[in-house]
Design goal:
With 128 residues, the chain is mainly alpha-helical. The chain folds into two domains: 1-36; 38-127, no CATH class. It is built from four helices and two strands; from the N terminus they run αββααα. The chain has helices spanning 2-31, 54-72, 84-98, 102-115; strands at 40-42, 48-50. The chain has a two-stranded antiparallel sheet with strand order 1-2. It is extended and about 65 Å long. The model has no long low-confidence stretch (mean pLDDT 82).
Length: 128
């Protein structure tokens, strides 16, 4: 009887070791700059650039669409940004400097806001 009990504890211990190993492996990927949740690369200056992949595009459009709905419904922008115009200006600047194929992303923001009937941004000409 003791042998079966010991065998059960051995399997539990082995399971814990395997799970701990998987967690450590996942964490080390992030530490090496291989972010598992973001498709990214380093440019020639060492800056992190977000890749233009189907997964990243879907995340981006979903996020923009949610923010547009929040703006349309009269909610305030998140993160303490004082206005939606400022929110979009900051976001456009971020994509301009860290996104592969940035014009695609910038154009989506501008066009989606127009389709939603939102006012033009203060510096609309600077969107690209």
């Amino acid at each position: 009887m003791e042998n079966k009990s010991m065998s059960g504890w051995m399997w539990i211990g082995l399971g814990i070791v395997v799970v701990a190993g998987l967690v450590m492996a996942a964490c080390s990927r992030g530490a090496r700059g291989e972010e598992p949740f973001v498709d990214s690369r380093r440019d020639t200056q060492g800056n992190v650039m977000i890749r233009d992949t189907d997964r990243m595009w879907a995340d981006f459009t979903g996020s923009v669409d949610r923010d547009i709905e929040r703006e349309r419904s009269g909610e305030r922008p998140s993160g303490g940004t004082p206005s939606w115009d400022e929110h979009w200006r900051l976001r456009l600047n971020a994509y301009r400097s860290s996104q592969d194929n940035a014009p695609r992303y910038l154009d989506y923001i501008v066009q989606a806001r127009r389709q939603a009937g939102l006012p033009e941004l203060a510096n609309q000409a600077d969107a690209r």
